[in-house]
Amino acid sequence: MHAIAPADLTLRPFHLLDQQWALLVAGAERPNPMTVAWGGFGTLWNRPVVTVFVRPTRFTFELLTREPSFTLSFLPDAWRDALELCGTRSGRDTDKWAASGLVPEPSEMIPVPRVAQAELAFECRVLATTDLDPARFLDPSIAKLYPLADYHRMYFGHVLAAWTRQELTEGVPSG
Fold first, then answer.
1. Domain containing residue 59
2. For the chain, what is the domain count?
3. Which of 35, 93, 116, 140 has the greatest number of CB atoms lying within 10 Å of its CB?
4. Does residue 175 sit within a domain?
């Protein structure tokens, strides 16, 4: 993988999150990969930003509280089973790296690793968080998705570094 400026990426953001999914890795001392399908990409406070959502019941939530940085890694289709595993087991009692065959790779800008098998990865420092408030849901059907009232926290991650394979930068001038 090679470094790239976030503005130079050519990607399909809705496909990446909703269809392909991603691994959010949190935790510096005991990193844990968790599958995510919610989030977004954009610009906020004049910075490239990734948003991700994590429920307070998740082990990853605890890790983000201790170390406010994370990586977001997108894997080739061949790793779909690993994504399934990381989305259905808790890192509290499972070493998801060993169970999935995924390999942590040191990040350049933060103490949380990326996923070595990724075709696209972001290193992010949390700038801000906000908790979803059911009183602000305008569509009443959304509340039904939270039978345990464990509303997600939204994390705004400043993209400090982006890493990609060549196929995601086709047509972008080098240098």
1. 2-165
2. 1
3. 35
4. no
